[in-house]
Design goal:
The complex is a heterodimer of chains A (about 300) and B (about 400).
Chain A: E1 2-10, H1 15-28, E2 32-38, E3 47-55, E4 70-73, H2 78-81, H3 83-88, E5 94-98, H4 103-110, E6 116-120, H5 122-130, H6 136-147, H7 152-162, H8 167-180, E7 182-184, E8 240-244, H9 254-258, E9 264-272, E10 278-286, H10 296-300, E11 306-310
Parallel strand pairs in A: 1-4, 4-5, 5-6
Antiparallel strand pairs in A: 1-3, 2-3, 6-7, 8-11, 9-10
Chain B: E1 15-21, H1 22-32, E2 37-39, H2 47-58, E3 65-67, H3 72-84, E4 89-93, H4 95-101, H5 105-110, E5 116-121, H6 135-138, E6 146-149, H7 153-167, E7 176-181, E8 189-195, H8 199-204, H9 231-260, E9 267-270, E10 277-281, H10 286-298, E11 303-308, E12 310-312, H11 316-323, E13 328-333, H12 345-354, E14 359-363, H13 372-383, E15 392-395
Parallel strand pairs in B: 2-3, 2-4, 4-5, 5-7, 6-7, 10-11, 10-13, 13-14, 14-15
Antiparallel strand pairs in B: 1-8, 6-12, 9-11
Helix pairs in contact in B: 1-2, 1-7, 3-4, 7-9, 10-13
The chains are: A alpha/beta (about 300), B alpha/beta (about 400).
InterPro entries (chain A): 4Fe4S_Fe-S-bd (IPR017896), 4Fe4S_Fe_S_CS (IPR017900), Oxidoreductase_gamma_subunit (IPR051626), PorC_KorC (IPR011894), PorD_KorD (IPR011898), Pyrv/ketoisovalerate_OxRed_cat (IPR019752), Pyrv_flavodox_OxRed_cen (IPR002869)
Protein name (chain A): pyruvate synthase
EC number (chain A): 1.2.7.1
């Protein structure tokens, strides 16, 4: 037996810790495991990928995982950019997805009927038990349920070793996820079929497919053009998005003052006055391209006009 | 894992299986070996070692002086000073950090101080690449340090303990570095066996304080001027000590095997008895190489593999013994020697040792991943005569000869 898994999510969601927890718990249960994160200088929100291989035999070869048995996805907005991970899952394998959507909608997002899809609202569970947006504990619980290992008791011990804090809270989240994870079985499995794609071994970041050019075509000295972060839309990192109720907004601009990402904008809108006269006025809006959903605007709004709404 | 399990009559000490990353395994070994002075500056990918050791000292689990220096130059200076006072010392670095402490590296050798340094290997900038390859450790080969290259967390743990015993042996008195793959070992959580009774480690490697050190009752001047009349003679002592340390390294490794049940050797051979093609490499990819060898064997190619574990002192006799009768030797180098005769540092040294050209393959540079199939294909090209010896080929890299 050798189970290969890949875990994708965003910096700060605890992907690496999740693989450490499951690997450690599997070792306690008598398996051999290597948790092989592929990371570098990640910042919060950037896509992160980690590998975990569990085997009954000792693992000496650290093969890159190319066609996993299980893919665990921490953010349903990554399904587009990281479709290649879903494509690479072996037929009959598992996709474990953290999403607030209904199981049917989530299955439609995954878009494969030859794999088992496990849907879990890990964010809601984590918020309930930990008051944090860290979905790794619940996803570890969902993993344990569908794979049948490692045991919950071992996961608890692993939390003690790897985290050493908030063990009870994390374990409560794991247990709840273990109980509520919804499994949509694969409709048709052709076990002899090959996965549609493989996970490339050449990229460390996997922010998406990129054009491979030869060494002669790479910019000399690795110069990057344009030297700007403008093209990098950071809005994809959001879990919640701010929504404004203009009837409550008094245009005090406190949200603009406090927004750390300059994502509050004043947009000109055309309005019709009481006697049919058209005039232009300013209104608060959000630049969802760069809004990371931190919630500071909702926090500082004196009239409660801004609400945070779940997006994944 | 890679260790050759031995069945000896002597009782192997009781151990428990835990799970740790390579970095934390090294920190645990240093704690069990009871380092007395630790000075290190955190640099990716070695940071968790420094953090863990600081935690041990802070929690009172390790009675050591922890010096949070402002940079690596000071880290090496501090451990040189502490070691010259007779303390068991530890530092750890990677990449540019090693570059920053470079000035002090030969001083530790000349003063014959048994400093142990860990190294989660990483490539050099630019462009900035925080990931693993062997550029850093390969750049300190000329200085006189003992250099170990380990394969996994278990071996890194075991080797730190062995290194203290070797370095402090009165026949050696040299600093030693224990290198392991940046990220592929340093950040990979793996199972490993550690002694249940921590005291076993200090029993195996007691602090000897036998080296030349400062002593108030017997004042001396260390690191003094060595005029042209004396410099070479003093340096030659260090050269001879390094050459002679081969024996000590083997002795210590054997005794470690008897007590702990794991032994690694200066080199690890795999299926070399009747091999017509041998794949030579170092570090964590050895597991993939062994898998590629199995595949080659299953197709009737008599393949074998050799892992270099100790590269300074260079175990030339052993390498010549294992590779002397092999037709084709393919060396997978994991860093490049810019403009060198073969481009790969180990390929150059193996070619010199066996006194004929070898097939030089460069891979995993800047931590570009490879798998066993890619190694298998490269070996097949060498086996079928499609590649020529003495030319740098690459696996999994765009650029270079393929």
């Amino acid at each position: 037996m050798r189970i290969e898994t890949v875990w994708v999510g965003r910096g700060g969601q605890g992907i690496v810790t999740a693989t450490y927890i499951i690997a450690n718990a599997s070792i306690i249960d008598g398996f051999h495991a290597i948790a092989n994160p592929e990371f570098g200088a990640e910042r919060r929100g950037a896509p992160v990928k980690a590998f975990l291989t569990i085997s009954k035999e000792p693992i000496e070869d650290q093969e890159p995982v190319k066609t996993p048995h299980v893919a665990v996805v921490f953010d349903d907005k990554l399904l587009g950019a990281m479709q290649f991970v879903i494509d690479a899952v072996k037929p009959g394998g598992y996709v474990i997805l953290n999403t607030g959507k209904s199981p049917q909608d989530a299955a439609a997002l995954v878009g494969r009927d030859d794999v088992n899809i496990v849907v879990i609202d890990a964010i809601a569970i984590a918020r309930k038990h930990l008051k944090l947006d860290v979905p790794n504990g619940p996803l570890a619980g969902a993993f344990s349920k569908v794979m049948g290992f490692p045991s919950l008791q071992s996961i608890r011990e692993a939390f003690e070793t790897q985290l050493g804090k908030a063990v009870e809270e994390n374990f409560a989240a794991v247990k709840e996820a273990y109980e509520v994870a919804a499994v949509i079985p694969a409709k048709k499995v052709d076990a002899s079929a090959k996965p549609k794609g493989i996970i490339s071994t050449t990229s460390a970041f996997l922010t998406g497919p990129y054009e491979v050019v030869g060494w002669r075509e790479v910019n000399k000295a690795g110069a990057v053009f344009p030297g700007s972060s403008f093209p990098y839309a950071t809005g994809g990192w959001r879990i919640d998005k701010p929504v404004i109720d203009h009837s409550k907004c008094i245009m005090c601009r406190k949200c603009w003052l406090y927004c750390p990402d300059d994502a509050i904008i004043e947009a000109w809108v055309e309005r019709e006055g009481p006697r049919g006269r058209k005039f232009r006025m300013k209104m608060i809006d959000f630049d969802y391209q760069y809004c990371k959903g931190c919630g500071v605007c909702a926090e500082v709004c004196p009239t409660g006009a801004i609400q945070m709404v779940r997006e994944i | 894992m890679s260790a050759q399990l031995i069945r000896e009559k002597e009782k192997i000490i009781k151990q428990k299986r835990i799970a740790l990353t390579g970095n934390h395994a090294v920190a645990l070994a240093v704690k069990m070996a009871r380092a007395e002075v630790i000075a290190a500056y955190p640099i990716t990918p070695q940071t968790p070692v420094v953090e863990k050791l600081a935690e041990y000292v802070n929690n009172g689990e390790l009675d050591a002086e922890y010096i949070p220096v402002e940079a690596e130059h000071s880290a090496m200076s501090a451990v040189i000073g502490a070691s010259a006072m007779g303390a068991r010392t530890f530092t750890e670095t990677s990449s540019q950090g090693l570059g920053h402490m470079y000035e002090n590296l030969p001083i530790a050798v000349g003063m014959r101080l048994p400093i142990i340094m860990g190294m989660a290997v990483r490539t050099y900038s630019a462009p900035i690449n925080v990931w693993g390859d062997y550029s850093d450790v390969m750049s300190m080969r000329e200085l006189g340090w003992i250099i170990y290259i380990t394969q996994n967390a278990q071996e890194a743990f075991d080797t730190i303990i062995q290194a203290y015993r070797v370095a402090e042996d009165s026949r050696v008195h040299l600093p030693a570095v224990v290198a392991y793959d940046g990220f592929w070992t340093s950040h990979v959580l793996q199972p490993l066996d550690v002694p249940e009774d921590e005291e076993e480690v200090i029993r195996f490697a007691p602090i000897t304080r036998s080296w030349v050190k400062l002593d108030l009752d017997n004042p001396a001047q260390l690191g003094a001027v060595g005029t042209p009349e004396w410099y070479w003679e003093i340096r030659w002592q260090a050269v001879e000590a390094l050459r002679g340390s081969t024996k000590v390294i083997e002795e210590v490794d054997n005794e470690f095997g008897r007590r702990f049940g794991r032994r690694y050797g200066l080199v690890s051979p795999y299926m070399l008895d009747d091999a017509e093609i041998a794949i030579v490499t170092y570090g964590s990819v050895y597991g993939l190489v062994k898998k590629a060898v199995n595949k080659l064997r299953s197709e009737g190619v008599r393949a074998g593999a050799l892992r270099l574990r100790v590269i300074r002192p260079w175990p030339g006799d052993l390498i010549a013994k294992y590779l002397g009768n092999v037709d084709k030797i393919m060396v997978i180098d994991r860093t490049i020697n810019h403009g060198g005769p073969l481009y790969g540092p180990m390929a150059t040294e193996i070619a010199t040792t066996v006194q004929r050209p070898v097939y030089n393959v460069l891979a995993t540079i800047g931590m570009r991943a490879i798998d066993s199939d890619m190694i298998y294909e490269a070996a097949m090209k060498v086996y079928r005569g499609l590649w020529a010896p003495g030319v740098p080929y690459t696996v999994g890299l765009r650029g270079g000869y393929e």
